[in-house]
Amino acid sequence: ACTAACAKLLKLDEHQTIMALGMAGSMSGGLIHNFGTMTKPLHAGLVGRDGVTAVQLAQMGMTAGDQVVEHPFGFANVVLGEGIYDLDHMADNLGKPFRTQDALMIKKYPCCGGNHAMLDSLFSLMRDNNFTYDDVANAEIDQSYFSVVMLYQEPDDELKGKFSAKYNVAAALVDGEVGIDTFTEDKIAEHNDNNTMDKVRTRVMAKSEELLTESEKGLKVKITLKDGRVFEHTTARADILGSQKNPWGMDAIKEKFQDNVSRVLSPDGTARAMETWENIPELTDVAEAIKSTLVASK
């Protein structure tokens, strides 16, 4: 996607675009095994860098295979597996709509997106029913059989905590929020020392059960209080806060931006950065926006 976008921006011709996509095919890939480590965000960075690099090299005449998807040893066979895709219909829905039109979002919480629907459900229950961690007997969360937030049941560092459903639920119940400070060594140690995750149970759904319940529409959060009351809530992934169907407002986005930037910039630097990014459509060079958030601007 990055390569295709850059090819369009730099006005590559058809041959150059094919060469760029061919190179990008050999640069692609990331392992779920690396989720919960410093390499996870590196995946996204490499995608951006390599997409730009592939386009620049193609522009200079570097060659690559011209059948990167459909060749017997191309991307589709290697990544998807022979016989489980249909080349004739692979692009039928391209641009109907483009994914960025309905899937681009600004994250509410600084953790794996697989946790967001669950957290939205939990905070909704906490607001509507006025309970805290001390009131809870147990919390049960449904999880997909292939969910990446099942990777770490009891995380021992902050990066693993971002990919732990149990930790996110426990932190939300205890602290009443999930933010940058949720994912620090001290906070992880605090929750482990206090055994806060013991109240959280995960129920892994069978593949057949997911098909029957259409779980892609949302996974259930069930809270049982010590007084016997039971509350349940389900939030569809398409409806999470920050999604295009449920935007959480420019004021909230500004607040998040300020909280992030103020950790490395002075108050004046933070104010300048906010003003610059608010007016980004009027900038003649995007480098101005990037420079406004550099620590050197402090």
Structure commentary:
Helices cover 43% and strands 9% of the residues. It has three domains: 2-96, no CATH class; 113-239, 2-methylcitrate dehydratase PrpD (60s Ribosomal Protein L30, Chain: A, 2-Layer Sandwich), CATH 3.30.1330; 250-297, no CATH class. The chain has 13 helices and four strands. The radius of gyration is 22 Å and the shape is globular. The two termini are 34 Å apart.
Short description:
The chain is of the alpha+beta class and 298 residues long. Helices cover 43% and strands 9% of the residues. It has 3 domains: 95 residues, no CATH class; 127 residues, 2-Layer Sandwich (60s Ribosomal Protein L30, Chain: A), CATH 3.30.1330; 48 residues, no CATH class.
Could you give the distance between the termini? 34 Å
Count the helices. How many?
13
Strand % is 5-15%
* SSE sequence, one letter per element: HHHHHHEHHHEHEEHHH
CATH architecture of the largest domain: 2-Layer Sandwich
Uncertain segments are none
Strand-pairing-aware structural class: alpha+beta
- Strand tally is 4
The average pLDDT value, as a whole number, equals: 90
Instruction: Summarize the amount of helix as a percent range.
Output: 40-55%
The largest pleated sheet is described as: 4 strands, mixed
The radius of gyration is 22 Å
Classify the fold: give the CATH topology of the largest domain: 60s Ribosomal Protein L30, Chain: A
Shape: globular
